[in-house]
Amino acid sequence: MKRYGLLSVLAALVLTACGNGSVKSPDFEPQLLNLAVTPASQSVGTGETRQFTAMGTFSVQPGAPADTPHDITDSVSWSSSDPSVASIDSKTGVATGVGQGTTTITASRDGINATATLTGEGIVLRSITVTPPQGATTVGGTPVQYVAQGVYSNSPTPQDITDAVISWTIADTTIGSIAPSTGKTVKVTGLRSGLTTVTASAKGIDGTAQFGVGQLTSVAISPKTASSPLGRAFQFQAIGTYSLQTGSSQTFTLPIPASWTAVNATGNTGDAPTLDTACDGQTSTSCKVTGHSQGDVDIKATVVDGAAGTFTDTAVLTVTEPVLDSVQITPDPIDVSPRTTPDNVDLPLGASQDFFPLYYYTDAPGVPVVAPRTAADKVVWSTSDATTVGITAKADNSITATAKKQGTANVVATAGSISDSVAVKVGPAAITQLLSVRPAKAYVGVGRQVEFTAVGLYSTGETKDIADGGVTWSSSDPSIASIDATTGVATAGANASATGVTITATLNSDTTQHATATLIVTPEACATPLLAADGATATEGPAVGVCLLCGVTGADNVIDADLASVGVITVGVGALNASRSIDVTAAASGAPYAVPFAAGSRPAFIIANANGPLVLAEVASQIQLSTLLNGAVQESTDNPVTPLRLDLLGAELISLNKTQGLVSFATSLPYDGVRIQLKSGLATALSTVEVGAACGTSLLPVQPASGISSLETAGVASTDEPSIEVGASLTLVAHDFTDPSQSLNSDDVSWTSGNTALATVSPTGVVTGVGAGEVVITGTLKNTSACGTHCSASRTIKVSSAICEVPLQMSQGATVDSLFSGLCLLCSTSNLNNVIDAQPQTYGQVYLPVGLLNAAVTVTATAKPPYAPFTAGPTTGFVVASENGALLTAEIGNQIVVRTLSGGTPTGDASNTAATPLRLDLLGTSLTGALGTTAQPLFISTTKSFDAVQITFNSGLATALSSYRLYAACGKGPQ
């Protein structure tokens, strides 16, 4: 139901008060209020139908008269509680009796239900027929034989009555007598002249026939004259006239059995007429005569009565030229024999079917012709619902019917008063062609699973994935890898195979159509698992940030050799700067490997997302791996130089079908331990990670690509030219050609720089600025077997001069420290050494909650001789970014102070003085991919020499700044 805002309600009230009380909202949608089914109860015999009607009452516009119930039968959904008693058409409300019992009929719409009761009577006798319908005899003459049969609810054809005794009566027992009085067949004998009624009764139902006793006086054919087209039969009837007694003027008439003949009249020399089998060579009360040449046919009926003698009469049938007798619709073209004329045709959505007319003329019964004999006989086509089945006329008077939406529509061909129709039922779209299997080539580790998907062309013209059950899957060698025949989930065996197997999909609706793919079974990605059995240990790593819902459970499960049991890291979404981690340390001795692991090795963890699939962007931004040596961090994936890599491994057989991933990175230093850290993200990001195993070393799974569509800056959604400053770095990511939304792992790409004097590029796609200018970086797939003409792509990088001409560097003895002042319980700093690590893209972090009285955080970077002191004159300061957006002058004027010191004492140069105002430079996109678009230099001009630069962050209002990144401290900044 729609909701309306306060302004809409107020406007409606004003309009009601000012106008005629009626308010029409353009967004108003009537809602069903009440629903009823009529009749409330009824009964039905097996095979019979009963119509139910749904009556609905709807809401109205404010001020409009209340709605009255009206028929909505076709817009509700119908159901029967017991289909063995009665079924019901879900759209029309027509119920059909099936058996005995009681069922509840329900109409449903918009969550509202209404019911009625339907009683099934089973197979029920509905009527009795007596044959012949009329009979006559003379007093004491041959008795008339009557036969009674019943018409039951399940069939219109009369059948013997076996579930009841038939009783016979005669209305006037003085005219005739019945023997026997019960049974299927009786004989009635004439006692005196007259006309009366014979009745057969069973189960309260009667069937009647006429019985007359008299003297036959004449016979007449009715009608005396008639005309019929050549080839069309015409029925004549013999009527006997009886007198109630000899010489009496009182008479009655009844149809009488007669012998029939038909001959061409004089002058009609064509083919002789024919009689139908009911009267040809035997007596019958009626006779159908068919003329086969134009002209008159003489008809004669003869009755021989033993008491009254022989009676004859004649009639004339005039045979006219042949005419169109019927038309039929066929879906078969003219070259198909025999051509079918179905009552119903099923079409999948979007499909088309040609229909052709067949013309039948009276002079050639059962022999169709494809073209009408006259223009007046030509059919006109129509459809009962053009929105369901549309028709398009063709030059040969055929049509093409197109299935537009699911449902049923009648296609009708009409010629004058003659017509034929075919019901076209439109079902779901069907697969017309099996196109391919995705992925065309897959790699999966031993014991793991990967799912294949068949792609088909549908009757709607769409190309889309085929649902389970649409194809049957098979493997060329199940010992290497098997596949579920229905789902397409392939399972690798216990041994790697470089040649792999061929996976085949066979279209179930057309088993001649096949599509194939290749599956290669690779060794286990975790080459050196760190296990407790070998002496490895697992502990919870350092906790970062305040986070009530954060934690680590089951750390020992990471090293228990069972991928189904996992360690779990949980970090609540939105927890600022919070993270939790697991540390795994290799055994110092006694293990089947040597420690420390050599530089260049690739440590890894096997992980899964507890709440869904692993998404590369989330993993890259929230999961950080580090190597440890004797407990100290060696390298981490928090910078572009050692980026994190995610490889999806497929589902592990015993891990509840969760897709696992291998997160790893290339090292440049030796290590004896590894750490996995989960950082807090946004509400849509990772909040829980399951860690199944830790790997001292790993083998990268093969990740084939269809090609490279483009090179993009990691973490930046922009088509702008990426830029970095000299000394800074950014990471380029190659995107798959077939699916540009998918990022390719950089290790699968060879990288080159067009000018190494301007920028270098690492084997993992990390671009580092060397000199100012523009440089072209090219990425080329290492495996070019399947990429065709799309094996490489290029991107232009702009390198600008460094912001800090003279950065303070730890390698030159510089130090950095922090100081908290005021009531600042939740204030914090982290990674401050990144401010002086000479890497422009790394940063330290400062957190200062808003609204704290007189609270402040101060960070001081100090240089040592011979690099200090710095002479007066140049600018100095920090490169700063806010996690809440770009820094604004109005905010930083009150909240951020930059000053210089000498020997630990302020020099007097400070941004909170009129003589030394703070300089704010917006960098724009100059550092996109390195620092981000919110990074800015906050500098002051100096009038005195100094050896330290200091920045103080004061707590502001709730709308102001609270979290900062410090990228660099500059002894000499932009001039």
From TrEMBL:
Q: Does the keyword Signal apply?
A: yes
Report the residue ranges that make up the BIG2 domain in this protein. Answer: 31-119, 124-212, 215-313, 334-425, 431-517, 712-790
Please name the InterPro entries in this protein's record.
Big_2 (IPR003343), Invasin/intimin_cell_adhesion (IPR008964), NUP210-like (IPR045197)
Q: What is this protein called?
A: BIG2 domain-containing protein
What Pfam families does the record point to? Big_2
- Residues annotated as signal peptide: 1-17
List the Gene3D superfamilies hit by this protein, alphabetically. 2.60.40.1080
Coiled-coil residues are none
Provide this UniProt record's keywords sorted from A to Z: Signal
PANTHER family, per database record? NUCLEAR PORE MEMBRANE GLYCOPROTEIN 210 (PTHR23019:SF0), NUCLEAR PORE MEMBRANE GLYCOPROTEIN GP210-RELATED (PTHR23019)
Question: Any keyword Cell membrane?
Answer: no
Extract the PROSITE patterns matched here: PROKAR_LIPOPROTEIN
